[in-house]
Write a structure and sequence with these properties.
binds zinc ion; globular; mainly beta; 4-stranded antiparallel β-sheet; DUF6527
Length: about 100
């Protein structure tokens, strides 16, 4: 399992390049966030997820329900990164399927 470490600063996250680290950016609509994350496999690729605090956002774009924790985040459903990593983010840890 890979720990998901929150970065307050997106630039710092990109500089440190720690697999599974993430940055949350609040969107204008209340309760919606973009989660920028570095692929847990360690390849260094960055992904972005639309997440809702306590709910799965509607609309056409893929989205995830987030438990609202910035230190031990959980997302549902599972995350599929660019077709090569698939797993779950649960209580602050990425776990490969
Ligand atoms: Zn990867």
């Amino acid at each position: 399992m890979v720990r998901a470490i929150q970065f307050i600063d997106l630039t710092d996250m990109r500089r440190m390049r720690i697999a599974g680290s993430f940055h949350l950016r609040a969107r204008e609509q209340a309760g919606l966030f973009e989660m920028h994350y570095l692929c847990p496999c360690g390849c260094g690729h960055e992904g972005r997820l639309l997440i809702g605090n306590g709910h799965k956002p509607g609309g056409k774009r893929a989205s995830w329900k987030w438990n609202g924790s910035k230190t031990e985040p959980t997302l549902l459903p599972s995350v599929h990164h660019q077709g090569h990593w698939h797993g779950w983010l649960t209580d602050g840890y990425w776990e490969t399927v």
